[in-house]
Amino acid sequence: PKGTMAFTGKYEFEGDENYDAFVQKIGLPSDKAEMGRNYKTVTEVVQNGNDFTWTQHLPGGHTTTNRFTVGKESDMESLGGKKFKAVVKMEGGKLVVDFPNYHHTAEISGGKLVEISTSSGVVYKRTSKKIA
């Protein structure tokens, strides 16, 4: 079936749009914003049906891992380290979730992981290429 296991893989940051405006809008501390700028974040996704493990490898050996099941409330952590509860939905092949101060979608498009975060009209787009 279409969409099954579509997300599984390792993706390396390739490019983004509106990073500065976005991190300012969500109030990311400048040291964290600086750290994330142009860093080749590696996102590792394991999808088993509706169950996901989504890990981001960040500068300095930090990792953030969110485990969630589509349609069920899950404990999540934002890039800034905020813990919150959210329900991840699947809409037309995209994962959709509301973080505390932004709306996030992720999809596989043309073999790349494309993530779009929107906060108060600022749209941040991040593209990562598949490396494994």
TrEMBL record:
Keyword entries, A-Z: Cytoplasm, Lipid-binding, Transport
InterPro entries reported in the protein's UniProt record: Calycin, Fatty_acid-bd, ILBP
Span of domain Cytosolic fatty-acid binding proteins: 9-26
First-listed, main subcellular location of the protein, grouped into a coarse class: cytoplasm
Gene Ontology MF, one: lipid binding
Compartmental location: Cytoplasm
PANTHER family reported in the protein's UniProt record: FATTY ACID BINDING PROTEIN
Protein name according to UniProt: FABP6 protein
Annotated organism of origin: Dicaeum eximium
Lineage, broadest ranks: Eukaryota, Metazoa, Chordata, Craniata, Vertebrata
Gene responsible for this protein: Fabp6
